[in-house]
Amino acid sequence: MNGLFQYISTVFKSVKSLLIGMKITGKYVFTPWNNVTQQYPENRDTLKMFDRFRGEVIMTHNENNEHLCTGCGICEINCPNGSIEIISKSILTEDGKKKRAIDQHIYHLGMCTFCNLCVKACPTGAIVMGQNFEHSVWDRSKLTKVLNQPGSKIAQGVKE
Amino acid sequence: MGFNIYDFSGMTHNMHLWFLERMSPTATTIVEWTIIGVSYMLFVALFGLFLVYAERKVCAAFQQRLGPMRVGYWGLLQTIADFIKLLMKELIMPKSADRFLYNLAPFIVMIATFLAMAVLPFAKGLQTLDFDIGIFYVTAVSSVGVIGILLAGWSSNNKYSLIGAMRSGAQILSYELSVSLSLVTIIILAGSMQLSVVVESQRDSWFLFKGHIPSLIAFVIFLIAGTAETNRGPFDLAEAESELTAGFHTEYSGIKFAFFFLAEYINMFIVAAMATTVFLGGWMPLHFGQFESFNHVMDFIPPLVWFFMKVLGVIFLIMWFKWTFPRLRVDQILTLEWKYLLPINLVNILLMCLVVLTKFHL
After folding, report:
1. Residues of B in contact with A36 (CB under 8 A)
2. Which residues contact B242 (CB under 8 A, 6 or more apart)?
3. Per residue in A56-89, pLDDT tens?
4. Same domain, A6 and A69
5. Which residues pair with B118 in a beta bridge?
6. More confident residue, B301 or B108
7. Does B316 touch chain A (CB under 8 A)?
8. B104-116 exposure pattern, b = at least 16 Cβ within 10 A, e = fewer
9. Do both A61 and A26 map to the same domain?
10. Per-chain mean pLDDT for chain B
11. Quick one: A23 and A70 in the same domain?
12. What is the CA radius of gyration of chain B?
């Protein structure tokens, strides 16, 4: 008798669990406005990528063409596949001391795996991940970018 | 030729007379056969293509996608484009395949499908064959298809094909039992195996409601076993993509593959149509006992529309199963049939006998 009871309860339990599964997928099918597909070329103007999307590494500049990069090279050390090259120069500060500064922050987009380690490692928050994802170009050399804008210099008060 | 959307029997009769006036009885028969054959072929091709499109759209909706959107408005021409592509593909045959059986297999599968379709009542007077053993006939010819699958697996000379075919054979032989027994449950209630009589006796209330609990159990078992018999997910281990590449039709390409593909979808239609005819009142409109005005409004919807509404509803349910449940292992499939569905079915038949004997039904 106990076996029969167990048999029947197995049937009811499994039917219940199947119905729970069907309820979950049913919720998906009857809420089509939650679909994740993007009709990409058509909605290019309105398409907004989500916040954590990693499109490319960019260096932020303020309105005076100043960035936060000290040229320390930590991002270069942290990059697992060598997508970043730091070329530094030494400059004279106002009080006559020699100081290291960034000359060119070279970023090879074609090698980058968008792992985000450089952004995490940056002590001053100079580089961030951008949202642009349309990277196709006709020439591979165009994928090598210099992130600091020409003529830019480090912003005042950035601690080394 | 009088055309009445609620009753096609007058139209077909007038057509018959119109042909008889103009040619000999033999020629009339041949012409009528041709018309019926061509219309069935057109139906299979068009409805099959539609079902493939519907499956892709429904699958996409279950996975929060949009599905085909580029070819035609909302991707409506997608399956037609796919079909044209399939027609132009090269027919490749494995070097050591059994030539005759390899070529024969897709046709057996297709023929079984056509045979089973012949007795389906689409609307009043729109039924090709009206056997007095209609339900028995459907269960009999629909199991011919498994021979085609076994032949395809055997003659391809491919391990995957053979494993897929053997799995399919074991599965269909087992689930055939459940399909038949759940139909027997309804035959007890209906008192007839003739499909037109079965439909006609559901005029007041569908068998699903009339036989309440035993009917409901039989309907659920029929849906499960019918899904298994058409080799669809979650019972699609005959062609389990992740294990057997494509199962029995691994070695088929082009139009022969299209035959298997179309037959699979039309078999799904046949299962849905049988569920509709036997449990959901066929082309009969939805009637509730006392609500006269409601019944009258329902009568205005043509039977053909009713039939296809119900069929598409059942097909949606079957697709819902496929895109929700994970595939069963072969031992789980046989356990489900022999340890659960079969005993439940046998008890259910007893229950239905009691219900009928005590006139407990509605």
Report:
1. 64-65
2. none
3. 898 988 888 888 888 888 989 999 988 999 988 8
4. no
5. none
6. B108
7. no
8. bbbebbbebbebb
9. no
10. 85
11. no
12. 21
- Residue B73 DSSP symbol: G
In a domain, A125, yes or no: yes
Whether A123 maps to a domain, the answer reads yes
Query: What are the beta bridge partners of residue A98?
Result: A92
- Look up the CATH number of the domain holding residue A105: 3.30.70.3270
Within this chain, do residues A86 and A147 fall inside the same structural domain, yes or no? yes
Is residue A159 in a domain?
no
Digit-coded pLDDT (tens) for B174-184: 888 889 999 99
Q: Return the exposure string of B263-291: e unless at least 16 CB atoms fall within 10 Å of the residue's CB, then b.
A: bbbbbbbbbbbbbbbbbbbbbbbbbeeee
Q: How far apart are CA B208 and CA B190, in angstroms?
A: 11
pLDDT at B2 over 60: no
CB-CB neighbors (< 8 A) of A24 in chain B: 324
Q: Does residue B7 register a pLDDT over 90?
A: no
Does A84 share its domain with A23?
no
A65 and A7 in a single domain? The answer is no
Å from B168 to nearest chain A CA? 23
| Number of residues that make up chain B | 362
**Predicted local confidence at residue B1, as pLDDT:** 47
Q: Which of B222, B234, B225 is nearest to B319 (CA)?
A: B234
Evaluate whether residue A40 is within a structural domain: no
Residues of A in contact with B69 (CB under 8 A): 37, 39
> A26 with A101, same domain?
no
DSSP B224-288: HHHHHHTT-TTS-TTS-HHHHTTGGGTT--HHHHHHHHHHHHHHHHHHHHHHHHHHS-TTPPP--
Nearest to B55, CA basis, from B42, B64, B68: B68
A81 and A120 co-located in one domain: yes
Contact B64 A35 (CB under 8 A): yes
State how many domains chain A has: 2
Apex B315 CA angle, B312 and B317, nearest 5: 115
Closest Cα to residue B271, out of B314, B308, B239, B237? B314
B1 or B342: whose pLDDT is higher?
B342
Q: Is B120 helix (H, G, I), strand (E, B) or coil?
A: coil
Question: pLDDT tens across A98-127, in order?
Answer: 888 888 889 999 889 999 999 999 888 888
Range of the domain at A96: 56-154
